[in-house]
TrEMBL record:
One of its GO terms (molecular function) is oxidoreductase activity, acting on the CH-OH group of donors, NAD or NADP as acceptor. Residues 320-346 are annotated as: Disordered. It comes from the Eukaryota. Residues 337-346 have a biased composition (Pro residues). It comes from Zea mays (Maize). This is Dihydroflavonol-4-reductase.
Amino acid sequence: MAAVVCVTGAGGFIGSWIVKILLARGYAVRGTSRREAADPKNAHLWALDGAAERLTMLQVDLLDRASLRAAFRGCDGVIHTASPMHDNPEEIIEPIIAGTRNVVEAAADAGVRRLVLSSTIGTMYMDPRRDPDAPLGDSSWSDLEYCKSTENWYCYAKTVAEQGAWEAARARGLDLAVVIPVVVLGELLQPSMNTSTLHILKYLTGQTKEYVNESHAYVHVRDAAEAHVRVLEAPGAGGRRYVCAERTLHRGELCRILAGLFPEYPIPTRCKDQVNPLKKGYKFTNQPLKDLGVKFTPVHGYLYEAVKSLQDKGFLPKTSGAKVPERRSCLPQTTSQPPPEIVSKL
Ligand SMILES: NC(=O)c1ccc[n+]([C@@H]2O[C@H](COP(=O)([O-])OP(=O)(O)OC[C@H]3O[C@@H](n4cnc5c(N)ncnc54)[C@H](OP(=O)(O)O)[C@@H]3O)[C@@H](O)[C@H]2O)c1
């Protein structure tokens, strides 16, 4: 019988890719959503290879521990991706902090072998006293007072949630591992827009005339999903935090790469800040994920796939001038209302 893995937020940007990879590897997948099983927002999941035979969707509320317990019962592993991604504290504190705590407790109650949590780089780098030359690692934590005083409520909630998850997992003897994605880009499997994809859409539509003086790290959505699955599978992978990032780019470099691939779009060429030196991004190491076998796709590949996907899904008008990145391995292996943008803290 196939091992069963539960994926919370299964129909989301990263969750959909995790489901796709798990099904391709022969797992039986239980996906959770706040929505009813037939909701069109999750219809794309049923088109995945293996879904008809091995996917089940369950309506689950992160604040209802009994519904989580029922979803996790009989599962070998759980991957918790469900989370709001915006900065309204009234809407996000409970599902992120209490929701994550409930997931840990329910996973422990259900006796799952390992819980993998999707956290965020925003739990690591939001600290004004951080040494900018030291790579972010297991012991890097965002400063909660700084998150609050700067109203970075998403980073605040995710940091408290992750710290609470470690504490609860230790208390319950649960094997926990945490994946820490940066800005995730690439092909959208889901029909709707997601927060991190909005990050580049605004540079393609002409909505943003100048780029900001910021640097961030980026990663391909398929690699981020693969990282979650490898961390779930590898016998000794529990008990640590895995930074999931391919490279750091200044926003100007990001725009230049986009313009090189898609010269037809009105991509900004000028920085808003003409006074200060270019801001450097945080340093990180992705070696622990490489050691688990994750191969990080170069940036041209995931930017290309993200834009093609925006065209295919009707978020961007199609153009004829795209330059296919030379590395064939970068190309896809398979073929409402937008949320507020919080990419500076992802
Ligand atoms: N994308 C990135 O660049 C990025 C970077 C760093 C970390 N992350 C983390 O990675 C995870 C997945 O991100 P994603 O980009 O795949 O996000 P996403 O596309 O927005 O998907 C997240 C899913 O979570 C569920 N959800 C949203 N609000 C919720 C709420 N209030 N209560 C319960 N469930 C809720 C939704 O599923 P239903 O509507 O079906 O319930 C949604 O599809 C999140 O934990 C996020 O914090 C993402």
